[in-house]
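Field guide to reading this record: the first block holds the primary sequence, the second block holds the structure written as discrete tokens, and the final block holds curator observations. Each block starts with its own label. This record concerns Long-chain fatty acid--CoA ligase, catalogued under organism Nocardioides marmoriginsengisoli.

BLOCK 1 — SEQUENCE
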Amino acid sequence: MSTTNLAAVLAARCADRAAVPALFGDDGRSWTFDEIDLLAGGVAAALRAEGIGAGDRVAFYLTNGPETVFFLFGAWKVGAVPVTISSLYNAAELTESLAKTQPRLLLVDGRRADVVAGIDSEVPVRSIDGSLPDVPVFDWQHQQRVDAVEVDDDAEACILFTGGTTGRPKAVSVTHAGTRGSLQRLARVSTGTEDEGTAALDAKPNLIALPLFHSGGQHSLLFAFFVGRPAVVWERFSIDLLGDLMEQYRFDNFFFLPTMVFDIVHAERVLPFEGVKSVLVAGQAISWTVRRAFEERYQVPILVNYGSTESGHIAGWTGRDMKAGLWKPGSAGRVYPGVELEIRDDDGAAQPVGTEGEVVVRSAMTKGYVDDAEASAELVRDGWVHTGDMGYVDDDGVLWLSGRKRDMIKCAGFQVWPEEIEDALRAHPLVRDIRVVGVPDDRLGEIPVALVVRERDTALDDDGLAAALVAFAREELAHFKTPRRIEFVAELERSATGKISRASVPDLAPADGGVR
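BLOCK 2 — STRUCTURE
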């Protein structure tokens, strides 16, 4: 079979460790690699019975759990393209996702029957568990061996939805070869050699902390299987479930979102991190306050990985880098070997070392956005993915990020990056969470306004704390970067994957030059 097809990841494990337990649910169920392959074969046969073949898109609206693993590999076996839709979406969002991606079939379970009933779409619907009386059953649980079909390197492998932190979620088309190349690159970085290697037969499992409809969760699953590790899949993150699973499986590493680390830091329960070598954090920048609190509490280093659904893995730090003294605090990490990266100005010209511009990467990871031709043309140009992130590379090949191109605030002609202000103010002990936005101003064009979730039970009232935060920012930042206003909010809106949402613009009054 083709080694390009992502189904080859499972086939390789069946060849060298078929009887090894490979997948665990949070309810105690488990499957070997061979059993996964047979169940995926049942899915493949059922898809073919529905007339689904190579290149056809199949939408999944499924509660996160082990079954999604069978459906992903089953679809890949026949060359079909999974469209992984968030199980948190309502009927309108699900309908919009179907309209964007035009799948030939929608697979659902019975957990959100009200949402399924409210879909406004002509796409045929099948139930994987037979729990919806008005929906035909997708008959997939007949185990059988099905070999994967050959696919081209640039064949569409999956449709993933971006988190939508800077706009409405977009449907990203990723390729088989691009995804596999990203797995190979990360495996080589992890081993420190050109040999990708495989884990020992008794290797501890990896917790797939992010949902499988998310690129981070899906890539974590593929990476675990690619290097031969088992995987534990849960429905959703919670501190108590995390603690229970840690006690059961004794994980030696984690991949978390910053919001998960935040919750761990603030949890009353002390989690059993003994034996955990490192925690990898990606998805968005983690604040120094949260990072320091976690590392001090649990004595486990946090490593970072920079990349995206559209570009794959670009830069990061490993445990070996830390031991070798290469780590540079505040950076995105060393650009990984094999990554072609340029920093470009607004005219598309590559910039020299140390000069800021947009991060651009040559990548076969994505075919673009299936629902937005104009945005796709902006994203991928001549094989180069334009990340929208601003930053520079130093003399040691370390990438430093300053913010998102489209989030930039132009204040009195100066460029102001919200993330820089957020990082500075997060260091204040009374700031629990923060988002900075630009607000129109007649004189300055735009000014930065900070939306702050404050710590409770403090001696300062809102006016006093606002003044204190502005004074604190002036000590840490240039004058033009200092927030002109502080607004206190109960909580910050977040996307389905936990990122602070920059898509919605808060209803703030025009600037009046005051602080409140």
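BLOCK 3 — OBSERVATIONS
The longest helix spans residues 33-49.
Confidence is low (pLDDT under 50) at residues 512-516.
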